[in-house]
Design a protein that fits this description.
With 256 residues, the protein is α/β, with parallel strands linked by helices. The protein has one domain: NAD(P)-binding Rossmann-like Domain (Rossmann fold, 3-Layer(aba) Sandwich), CATH 3.40.50.720. Strand 2, helix 2 and strand 3 form a beta-alpha-beta unit.
């Protein structure tokens, strides 16, 4: 049994690696921090291959598939991604395009290519990591929210297609709220509510994936928040999210 995890050098990806190793899965970990990848490899009890690859480069995404397509992978976890706080007119276009390539394009390519292989052998799991942000629009974090909307809705559509194909391949999408990871440091903001531990979210997600749960939302608090968005008018929800992002940015600036 073997799993491929992108964004495997820290946070949720790292803790998914540890948990799957405990479940006797060999691992292929992909990330940009080679030192961290090696540290994780040394702590896992199963066989681990690491690839220090930047998946915001589309050529590298295809390269990753080519070097792993014959590994007989059972689980694909698309976890790599990042965010960027700020007004849309102020944020770096180059950085946003890098985010879109990583958060959307890389996920799309890897999902499509490995899904084709999984369908041929009629087995396999795909877990795409989105966010509770995928259910909303996010002023001052607009590009990130948009990328997670894409991942969520694409995963849901693929689920329905697989069901009508009577395929045994399973796809799930993880939509956590705030998680204790490097997200804040990279994005330039700080969560103003208590974050779930990446270890908890990783284990919860893997367990639910194996139970064929389609949308995986850790913690009751975030489940309720997502549920309530159905009843809040769009303009009011935008105003609430704008206020929340402002608090995050101000908190980050105060502490840095």
């Amino acid at each position: 049994m073997k799993a491929l995890i992108t964004g495997g050098s820290s946070g949720i990806g790292r803790d998914m690696a540890y948990y799957l190793s405990k479940l006797n899965y060999d691992l292929i970990l992909v990330g940009r921090n080679n030192e961290a990848l090696n540290s994780i490899k040394n702590k896992c009890k199963t066989n681990v291959k690491i690839y220090n690859i930047d998946l915001s480069s589309i050529d590298n995404v295809y390269k990753l598939y080519e070097i792993t397509k014959d590994e007989n992978i059972d689980i694909l976890i698309n976890n790599a991604g990042f965010g960027l706080f700020g007004n849309f007119i102020d944020t770096s276009l180059d950085r946003e395009l890098e985010m879109i390539n990583l958060n959307i394009v890389a996920v799309h390519i890897l999902t499509k290519l490995f899904l084709k292989d999984f369908v041929k052998k009629d087995s396999g799991y795909i877990l795409n990591v989105a966010s509770s942000a995928g259910f909303m629009a996010g002023p001052k974090l607009s590009a990130y929210y948009s990328t997670k909307n894409y991942v969520l809705k694409e995963s849901l559509a693929i689920y329905e297609e697989l069901k009508h194909m009577n395929s045994s391949v399973k796809i799930s999408v993880l939509c956590p709220g705030p998680v204790e990871t490097n997200f804040n440091k990279i994005a330039g903001g700080s969560f103003n509510t208590k974050s779930a531990s990446s270890e908890y979210v990783a284990k919860y997600a893997i367990d639910k994936m194996f139970k064929n749960k389609l949308i995986i939302i850790p913690t009751l608090k975030i489940k309720l928040a997502v549920f309530m968005t159905r009843f809040i008018p769009n303009k009011l929800l935008l105003k609430i999210n704008y206020h929340i992002q402002n608090i995050k940015i101000n908190k980050y600036n105060k502490n840095n």
